[in-house]
Amino acid sequence: MRVRVVLGAIAGVIATAPAWAETLSFPSSYGLYGTPGMIDMPTALSAPDAEFGLTSSYFSGQLRNTMTFQILPRLSGSFRYSIIDNYTGPGTPTRYDRSFDLRFRFIDESTYRPAVAVGFQDFIGTGLYSGEYIVATKHVTPRLRFSGGIGWGRFGSYGSFSNPLGIIDDGFNTRPTGTTGQGGVLESAKWFRGPAAVFGGVEWRATDKLTLTAEYSSDAYTQEAGVAGLFTHSMPFNFGATYQLAPGMQLGAYYLYGSTFGASLNFTLNPKDKTFPSGLAPAPVPVAPRASNPEVEASWNLGPKTAESARVAMGVYFERDGLVLDALDMSETRAVVRFRNMRYQSVAMAVGRVARILTNVAPASVEVFEIVPMENGMALSSVVVMRSDVEELEHAPDGAWELYSRAQIGEAPALGMVSFASNPNPQPLSWYLAPYIATNTFDPDNPFRFDLGLELKARYELTPGLFLSGGIRKKLVGNLDQSTRVSNSVLPRVRTDYYLYDQNGDPAINDLTLASYFRPGPNLYGRVTAGYLERMFGGVSAELLWKPVNSRFALGAEINYAKQRDFDVLFGFQNYDVVSGHVSGYLELPQGFQAQVDAGRYLAGDWGGTLTVERTFRNGWRLGAFATLTDVSFRDFGEGSFDKGLLFTIPLETITGRSSTTDIQRTLRPITRDGGARLEVDGRLYGIVRGYHESELTDQWGTFWR
Amino acid sequence: MGNLLAVKRHILALLSAVALASCGSDQPAGTAYLTGVAQQVLGTLGQSGKAGDVAAQPVPDFALMDLNQPLMVARIASRNAVGGLSVVGRNQGFVTWQTGDGISLTLKSGVLASTRGLGADLMSADIAEVVPAVQTGRGTARRVHRYLDGENQLRPLTFVCDIETTGSGTINVLGAARSTREVTETCTSPDLIFTNVYWIGRDGLTWKTRQFIGVGLGHVELEWAAH
């Protein structure tokens, strides 16, 4: 019950809609820090829920690249990578810095009340930009708004006064300096400490595309102006203009601190939007109702010859729709179809197409359609619909939900069932030859290294569920091999030798594996993968997952034996080997949030756990963050203290509109170290199974008739 | 803006060239991703056209042909598209028409009920009250359209529609002179107003019509060579 209460509280926060009518306000601009703000100073405004803002800004030797995500309607998070020239004085090296921000809007704007937000800028690690603020924003007309606030840290460095919080405790009067340990941890000892200052400004929406801004900045730029000498801070006022070049594209120009000019370019996109909301897939085969189609009313002889001809007829429809018929089992009244969806991001859409095809080919006596989607040789769920419902609801105004209410989603029937019309895989081989780009970001010597080359990937299905697959890369141009940052890790170098792999692995056999997928029992899924599992490790990996179709909870276990590969990324191995493995719990939370906890042993032999939280969108987008704590001390871990990063999953179909099951997946780590490193084995079960189960089928059911 | 569009075109052309440089039976994620993100960020080109171009496209003189099959011609000005459609499905009075390249329109008694394959499809329309009102040429009807949003959720839009007969006479439909009456349907919602026009022959069949699909696509114009 306690869990339910907590979940309810989260849902309550999320469901709170801003009371201030959108028509009485205007959208926020992104400032120099790449967060909703004026120029250098923040506002209390939030971007639209789930908006993803990418901003590059530059002034006087300072480049800031910021990614801001509106995690919840009130909560935003930012990741910034900054490059600052001459940081510790003229002629000194360029400083590369990563920073994270969080902002929470705790009061909404209303007729007489401003919106109020609290922000933590650069609150983890070295804290070049660290500062906290409380800021209020109020529109006075639909085209004019004022913001004002009080700031600490950077935001309390110009025109400051002693900290008003000093009344509570003397400790607030001094702001600690330096970084805790190896960095990468919360610098909460600094928050709201030291001198404070006020800031403020005004934004005027001159036209629908042009906004003019003037602000009073409480940032003295002590380091950049004073020490590095990048510009002269001659006055605290900034003036700016932002212009919307195109929807989702903003250009800003600024006159800053009485002495210098700056510019910014911002792109926004929202995972909730799609270029083509209903997609560009060709129209489905229409339903053929029995009443008006004499062909399907013909009596049905259940002999094997007729079943064979039905299978051939179905195969034609399936191929046209990008589906593969695996097996057809037909009785007098029931048709069971096992199929593979090769084309549609939405499984519900594929199921809808199978249902319509069945009305065209199944004999009139067949009333029950059981549709079983397959992937990697595993039957993953079962959708049972009545043929008369499909006939009745094809054009019903609320036909998708009426059909959903009459359909049954459940566990797939056992694979052992008699299937007299099993289809051999018509395309056991899939492959591509394509350019690839491999990147190494955030190397302090060169923040963006990359290789460009050709990649050949192939996968062959030997028998249902047994796959031989591999990928070879040949570099054409690049500078990944120029990294000279020799690992200083005191742990087994399971990841920090990456530069040696970059230098020696050309051409590289990135992976070469034999993988078997199977269903050991009801609600159970299994995988065994052996071979060259990833670029740095080979071995054997075995996984078992328990996931009932209608459950929001799943449990998994994985065990691996991995041996480190030679730096040439060909066939040889080095001496280091390790047994690693995890027990994993997966939980779907309300409002599309998903939590995963993994506990076990990592590649360096360290024991610990990983927490991953993702916001998932019903079109397949997923954005999340993870952190791993193990028995490796922060000191032994090295820079960053512990492993953490951001996760992105973007279904290609949501961007191009063309039907595709391809997802783009990226993991972004501020730094790669050896502690808390997990084996990167392809085809883990939960990611495969989840899309076919009840909650995702329900989320996408609106596409059943698409 | 013209220059900006030109820049966007160049970037997309470059990325498309990279994507096309790949081959195989699978879609490689990396390059398709670049093209896709560029499209998302820069906006998609080639989806808008000039309305004038549609009218300029020649349509074959169907009246001269021997038509054994029902045939409908559709024009969507916003897509700069003209196509012939034939019947591929009939279910409970709803007739589904489809082009050779996989775009379908479903109508009941000449009233558009859904589209498929257009990217911003009308997923369904509750036209139960509209159909009899259009047939009689007057009345008020409630109409509910459903569209998919970016998260695959169906979003209903409800309209109140006034239907009236606004004229009669002989019109040219794909080269054939047809004696019709003109019925106009004006639909309003808090955010949107649109107008549909139906030209209905003495046989009670709709021979020509102009109907609203949705905000992104605007109207479709339909003419029948044979029912």
Mean pLDDT of chain B: 79
Helix content of chain B: 10-25%
What share of residues of chain A is helical?
Answer: 10-25%
Q: Count every helix of chain A, treating DSSP H or I runs of 4 or more residues as helices.
A: 12
Multimeric organization: heterodimer
Q: How many runs of DSSP E, i.e. beta strands of chain A?
A: 32
Largest sheet of chain B: 12 strands, antiparallel
Molecular shape of chain B = globular
Which structural class best describes the helix and strand composition of chain B? alpha+beta
What are the low-pLDDT stretches of chain B, counting only 5+ consecutive residues below 50? 1-20, 30-66
Please outline the major beta sheet of chain A.
Answer: 13 strands, antiparallel
Tell me the CATH architecture of the largest domain in chain B.
Answer: Beta Barrel
**Which topology of the largest domain in chain B does CATH recognise?**
YmcC-like fold
Residue windows where pLDDT falls under 50 for at least 5 positions of chain A: 1-20, 296-304
Number of domains of chain B: 2
Could you give a quick summary of the protein structure above?
The complex is a heterodimer of chains A (706) and B (227). With 706 residues, chain A is mainly beta. Chain A has 12 helices and 32 strands.
How would you explain this protein's 3D organization?
The complex is a heterodimer of chains A (706) and B (227). Chain A has 12 helices and 32 strands. Chain A has 706 residues and is mainly beta. The two termini of chain A are 39 Å apart. In chain A, a hairpin with a 4-residue loop joins strand 8 and strand 9. The N terminus of chain A is likely disordered. In chain A, the strands form 3 sheets. In chain A, strands 20-21-22-23-24-25-26-27-28-29-30-31-32 form a 13-stranded antiparallel beta sheet. In chain A, strands 1-2-3-4-5-6-7-8-9-10-11-12 form a 12-stranded antiparallel beta barrel. The radius of gyration of chain A is 29 Å and the shape is globular. Chain B contains 4 helices and 13 strands. A 12-stranded antiparallel beta sheet of chain B has the order 6-5-4-3-2-13-12-11-10-9-8-7. In chain B, 20% of the residues lie in helices and 49% in strands. Chain B is globular. In chain B, helix 1 packs antiparallel against helix 2. Chain B has 227 residues and is an alpha+beta fold. Chain B starts with a helix and ends with a strand. The chains are: A mainly beta (706), B alpha+beta (227).
